[in-house]
Amino acid sequence: MSRGRKEFINPRATFHQISISDPQLANIIQKESIKVISHHAAQISVSDSVKNPVKDAESNIIGTLQLLQNAVECGVDKFIFASTGGAIYGEQDYFPAREDHPQKPTSPYGLSKLSVEGYLKFYKEQYGLKSIIFRYGNVFGPRQNPNGEAGVVAIFNNRLLKGQAPIINGDGEQTRDYIFVRDVVNANLLALKLNGSDTFNVGTGQETSVNELTHLILEVAESNIDVQTSKKNNFEQRRSCLDYKKLKGSLNWSPKVSLKEGLSETFIFFKNNGI
């Protein structure tokens, strides 16, 4: 809940507010008879990881290791891990990147995610814990927290609703693979059917520049505000795009929500909920 809101929790869910590093978490896993852990709790800011690599590692590596130990000791069958596509592959050799693309992280955030992927393979070999690794593109959608570096769609929507202009870093030609949150959720639900361990990209296979993204956001918001620019971030990747054919072949998954549809739904949510 470090970035979420309690009112967004499904009323059918049992909620325990506890750190993944808390030793008492094992008691909850046992009490609830949990057999599948879907691990999405993380430090998600690339820029913060550059500023403080130790803090990033404490959350994303050590915190995950403690959760993995609890999973093994409590008899969990499967561990679903939210990894990253762009930050793990780094500056890509080809587009879109397949899962076997060379892994060249350029930030502590990418390094921490790649490190955990290695630990998941160790836990599978050592303890038999099955794992599904999802390498996400840039996930966006309703309920996303706008107070941070990671969610550019949420940040831009938030600024527009405050009457402020979006701020583009650099020339705006840097690209990302933007994937709507509902498509990501569907991938996670389908993963429950898998028996073994595997790694999948979750993206659209489409590159979108920040300039193009901003134009679409302004269009759905019916805004003609002038965009502002700022200096580029030295650690920022130039291009990122993910090939999802492996996931489609294994689980018949493909993205259903177009970028414009997702941006429209997101803007309407932000507008109606005062986020």
Question: How would you portray this structure in words?
Answer:
It is globular and about 55 Å long. The chain has one domain: 3-Layer(aba) Sandwich (Rossmann fold), CATH 3.40.50.720. Helix content is 41%, strand content 14%. The mean pLDDT is 96. The chain is built from ten helices and ten strands. This is NAD(P)-binding domain-containing protein. It holds the Pfam family GDP_Man_Dehyd.
Keywords summarizing the entry:
single chain, 275 residues, alpha/beta, Rossmann fold, 4-stranded parallel sheet, two-stranded parallel sheet, 10 helices, 10 strands, 14% strand, globular, NAD(P)-bd_dom_sf, NAD(P)-binding domain-containing protein, NAD(P)-bd_dom
Global geometry: globular
End-to-end distance: 16 Å
At the fourth level of CATH, the homologous superfamily is NAD(P)-binding Rossmann-like Domain
User: How many distinct beta strands?
Assistant: 10
Report the sheet-strand fraction: 5-15%
